[in-house]
Design a protein that fits this description.
binds zinc ion, two-stranded antiparallel sheet, Rossmann fold
Length: 245
């Protein structure tokens, strides 16, 4: 462990990313939460990461190719992790950002390294909240998560590049077409995107409508490559869409 990592470990002792319990060892989850946390089954669609049987792109990506090059989600949105994300997002537990980012970095490590092999290291960009919601919630959970991920991985961070310029309805309960409509024109890019690939970071990927809208705005502004990384993904019946974005 380097000096910075040691100091960080002292200042922020490892905590379970799902229940927040302090841990003796530097693992992402406490043993009971680890048992009930599922990594997304592989292989999935090469484009959006949806766990599908067939090789190559899934049906959705074949009919409507997404503006992002590839998306990866660390865990299935279920069990203790889904409850942890809910507490992080809606119940004021902003301190879960670091344990969640550590869990994300640990699981997504191979995917991130493969990405860095193919192209220069990406810049992390959070999928932003609208100002109104930020004022009500008091913090932007995706920004906190992305900041913590940058600290954990050493990847560069760009927080002001993407803005949500239109308040949108909560996505929960909307169909895929309604989600797309709801997010139309919701994002704006504030300046020229960096010359490096952009890695969008968010908490949950459900239908991918948010990821598509945000990466579409970045691509339209000139970003050459956009990737998407989320903590969790809704998979089949494991997700009733209750907590989804
Ligand atoms: Zn736990
Ligand atoms: Zn797909």
């Amino acid at each position: 462990m380097g000096l910075v990592a040691e100091l960080l470990a002292l200042a922020f002792p490892p905590a379970c990313a799902a229940c927040g319990e302090l841990l003796e060892r530097d693992t992402p989850f406490c043993p009971p939460c680890a048992l009930a946390t599922e990594p997304v089954p592989l292989p999935g669609c090469g484009r959006c990461g949806e766990p599908v049987e067939e090789t190559g792109p899934c049906g959705r990506c074949r009919t409507r190719p997404p503006p992002f090059s590839a998306a990866h989600a660390a865990f299935v949105h279920t069990g203790p992790l889904a409850r942890g994300i809910h507490r992080f997002k809606y119940e004021g537990h902003s301190g879960l950002a670091l344990p969640l980012a550590r869990a994300l970095a640990a699981e997504a490590g191979p995917w991130l390294r493969a990405l860095e092999h193919r192209a220069p290291a990406p810049v992390l960009v959070p999928v932003p909240l609208h100002r109104g919601r930020l004022l009500r919630r008091g913090y932007d959970q995706a920004a906190l998560l992305t900041r913590a991920l940058a600290r954990t991985t050493g990847l560069p961070l760009e927080t002001g590049l993407l803005r949500r310029i239109r308040a949108t309805r909560r996505q929960v309960g909307l169909t895929e077409a309604e989600r797309t409509e709801n997010l139309h024109g919701a994002f704006a890019v504030t300046g020229p995107p960096p010359d490096l690939p952009v890695l969008l970071v968010d908490d949950v990927l459900t239908t991918g409508a948010t990821a598509r809208a945000a990466s579409g705005a970045l691509r339209a502004a000139g970003a050459r490559r956009v990737y998407v990384l989320t903590l969790a993904r809704a998979v089949g019946e494991a997700n009733p869409g209750r907590f989804g974005l």
